[in-house]
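My current task is to audit a protein record that another person submitted. What it holds is a sequence and that sequence's fold in token form. Thanks in advance; the entry in question is below.
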Amino acid sequence: MLAAELLYEQAIHSAQANGFVHNEALTDELAARFYAARGFEDIAHLYLRKARYGYQRWGADGKVRQLDQLYPHLRVQEAVRGTTSTIVTPTEFLDLATVIRVSQAVSGEMVLEKLIEKLVRIAVENAGAERGLLILLRGGEPRIEAEATTGPGSIEVAIRQAAVTPSDLPQSALHYVIRTLEAVLLDDASTDNVYSKDEYVRQKRSKSLLCLPIVNQSKLVGVLFLENNLTPGAFTADRVTVLELLASQAAISLENVALYSDLQRSEAFLAQGEGMCQTGSFGWNVSSGEIYWSDGTYNIFEYDRPAKPTLEMAFQRVHPDDRDFVRQAHERAINEKTDFDVEHRLLMPDGAVKHVHVIGRALQTSSGDLEFVGAGTDVTAAKLAEEKIRQSESELRQILDFAPQHVYVLGPDPDTRLYVNQAALDYLGLTADEWRTCDRRELFHPDDWERGRRDAQSKFAAGLPHEAEVRLLGKDGKYRWFLRRWSPLRDEHGRLTRWYVAGTDIEDRKAAEQRLQDENVSLREELDKASMFEEIVGSSAALKKVLSHIAKVAPTDSSVLITGETGTGKELVARAIHRRSRRSSHTFVSVNCAAIPRDLIASELFGHEKGAFTGATQRRLGRFELAEKGTLFLDEIGELPAETQTALLRVLQEHEFERVGGTGTIRADVRVIAATNRDLESAIAAGTFRSDLFYRLNVFPVEMPSLRERREDIPLLVRYFLNRYAREAGRRFTAVDKKSLDLLQAYTWPGNIRELQNVIERSVIVSETETFSVDGSWLSRQRSTVPDIQPGLFNRRPAQEKAIIEAALRESGARVSGPSGAAARLGIPGSTLESKIKALKINKNRFKERLLSQNS
């Protein structure tokens, strides 16, 4: 009896909690009968009164009348209707059979479309209507869900699901019901003063109309519209009562269907999620042994759905080697009433093996029973992947052990040592365990440990890759140099998880570098001893002044402008300045500005991007980039076009430039030394050279004296060049002819040292004795008939340039270089003149032919 009482109370509380008034009333009535049958009249009377009140709240007035007839003592003063009531009908006229039939028809339906069809069909049947509409609120807007029409011998129902239009029903009546939640009943709509003007009523000439709200707990769910245009007053009080009951039950049933639909959708989502995750859920009542499995669990264990799950069915699938510890885990969870979490294998009928991870949560019911609710996941794919990873790691370790480099794996904290390959252990003479626990300081050279930690501290803190050269102590007690590269490994969230370290033996490279460095130092010392200024030979006062200037300006970064006639050795001075500067370890780049075509000089100096101009098939670095941190020597600076002068001025002022065709700015750390044989001040006056560029270049001017200004250096220069070319030619000279030496000192040398060098080289080739002599005919004393060359010769028009060059070639017999060549006559380098001859398309051979014909 006690169990029955508990069940009645649980049912009543459940109905109250879920708002099922009719279920609560029915349970109260059954409980009253239970207590009355056992002689507990007072308790039975209390439950009967609660049942009567519940039926009255539900709107089942026929049921209330039945209870009053069976139990007259229950009749009390009628209570005020609650806010959840949806019908207001006297109970005297409602037929109990109709109430039960209507309630049963709609309360048991859980499919929305079928429920809608039943509702509208029953409404039309019980109202005697020709046509009916069921309207539900969707998102606050009324929409027609179904329409029923009375035909010959049957009622046709159509599911419409359409918006409400004025042609469907009287809009004024619908809006009134929605606004007030009150029914509208018109016995003859055409004569009603309020609604007769409605467009629908006028067009249809409507007679009997009923617009009934469907309300659940004071909230409008929908509207039931019925009409009969055959006769006025078609909707009698009895029919309206049944319809009001139908509307009340419809509101509850629609809510139940919505809840059931949500539940079905949730279960479908759960089943799809379980299938995607290969997971199944379960419930297990330990006392009763009852077990619930979801579809996912059936799929994992590969049992058919009709099979009722049992504990033994589950253990039949557990792998024989795992059954004991799985049973022990279950028994421990039952005895201690705690959760369990196990991972084991399943052996399927076809011999396949699955790996599952099962989690169970212990729960205690209100009656004290122990239940487990949990989930099992098929982790076979993950296990196979883990096995492949382990196999790959094993293979990788074997490969790393055979690698000649030292490989280390450390944790996010570099002091956490995880792995070292065999090559490193063999060198260190340690085992893996000894390496993990040893003091790492003892493995490094004392000078490298602190330095390495200090330099890498910021890189470790920021998790940045870096490298260092250190000496490690080998098992033979000797140190060797290693290049160690540190690479961080991060997870998908960017967190540092590992440090990978690769060590390469660079002992041989370091030894070679040291030998090369020693050789370079020795070579530099020998060069410095042989000559303070390399190939600058002489002891004249004029030359000593130049050398003094070189010594003073070389250590600075100041721009230098070297002036002087052609052939005086301006490039040698530029190189001497570079070699004695702080930039001597970097590149010295030389550019002859006059030898480069005007349209390519900017590209030559600053570089160009791919596609910057026709023929620019790839990016090219300019001379400024090649000379980075070094020295750039710009010879023949006076021949720069105006636009290039502007770009050069920007580099000198801002220390930046752009490649031709580029948009990015490039910083320049270059020392600029310029040289020219032109009078730049005259060029400034003529407007062919920028004055601001001149002042930027002329920070420290160095003027080279001509050879005729330092005649006392000619004997030294003769011996210097004689030794060089005699050694190259394999000749030996014991003396220099005094007459030839006097002749050389008396000559004016328009081509300066370059002309002297050419004369000495030619004389070495043709001399037949051990006494060096020079043919005096080579030193022409004739005056040139070439027109005077004005400053800015090559800034003239091409036709003028061509005429001047052809005149010089004509005088020199088509000879370009040499003391009597056209270049010496024009006062420009031979390479510069060759470039101009090619650019102006001058044929030198015709001047040779003219000279031959004149000699004939």
Remarks:
- The radius of gyration is 55 Å.
- The first strand starts at residue 131 and ends at 138.
